Amino acid sequence: MIMINITTMSGFLLMGFTDIRQLQILHAFLFLVMYVLTLTGNLIIIIITTLHQHLQSPMYYFLKHLSLLDLSFISVTVPQSIDNSLMNDGYISHGQCMLQVFFFTSLAWAEVAILTVMSYDRYAAICFPLHYEVIMDPTKCKRAVTAVWLSGGISGILYTTTTFSITFCRVKIIHQFFCDVPQLIKLSCSNDYLGVVGVDAFMAMMALTCFTSIVLSY
Predict the structure, then answer these.
(1) Which helix (H) or strand (E) holds 174?
(2) How far apart are CA 136 and CA 123, in angstroms?
(3) Angstrom distance (rounded) from CA 103 to CA 167
(4) Structural domain that includes position 45
(5) What sign has the CA pseudo-torsion 131, 132, 138, 144?
(6) Most buried residue, 29, 47, 137, 176, by CB count within 10 Å?
(7) How far apart are CA 80 and CA 179, in angstroms?
(8) Which residues of 181-216 are buried (b: 16+ CB within 10 A; e: fewer)?
(9) What letter would DSSP give residue 188?
């Protein structure tokens, strides 16, 4: 009866880490502490780099956006996981799962992109100190950050559209504490997951390019 209900429900069942109630409470507490500390640390960085007059250089501008990305990234999965553990209910609706996949993949790529931009900023500052202000003027910095967020959004759209075009014909149980794309692919019973593999290959190539740029810049 439970298996039938899971199969026919519109959402998914997140298995999390354990079924033992005491460990679920411990998991929720540890995740809450980690979340509050991360939230506090990144908010402090954002406030200081915004208000402090001496921290208005490109380096701190990019650092502020990196902190905003970190703050947003952890907020996509951790609060949902804490709620599921406390309520002892791993159910997540189809719409919530789609949003998790979109924001998780968007922010993950945006973090890679902003780290690449920051490495170029440091390269320009060290190798071309006399031309640095021209190379990294405020307009170019804003355009770089805009490109970072847009590329993240494109990545999220690609992953979300290909992942949720899959026909889920297996029991909708996800052995993770959030809607993980590889786990969702396992629920497919046909070859319609090949679109996700194509997106994975493309994003892996782009990530390798960014990683190579970061290594070369240092």
Answers:
(1) strand 173-174
(2) 11
(3) 22
(4) 2-217
(5) positive
(6) 176
(7) 10
(8) bebbbebbeeeebebbeebbeebeebeeebeebbee
(9) B
Task: Please report, for residues 95, 153, 155, the alpha-carbon distance to residue 198 in angstroms, rounded to integers and kept in the order given.
Answer: 23, 17, 12
pLDDT in tens, the chain (218 residues): 344 455 556 788 888 777 788 888 998 899 999 999 999 999 999 999 999 888 888 999 999 999 999 999 999 999 989 988 888 888 888 889 999 999 999 999 999 999 999 999 999 999 988 888 888 988 999 999 999 999 999 999 999 999 988 888 777 888 888 898 988 888 887 777 788 889 999 999 999 999 999 999 88
Number of compact structural domains in the chain:
1
- How many whole angstroms separate alpha carbon 81 and alpha carbon 100? 12
Q: What is the CATH number of the domain that holds 160?
A: 1.20.1070.10
Neighbours of 5 (CB within 10 A): 9
Tokens of 4: 């039938």
AA letter at 55: L
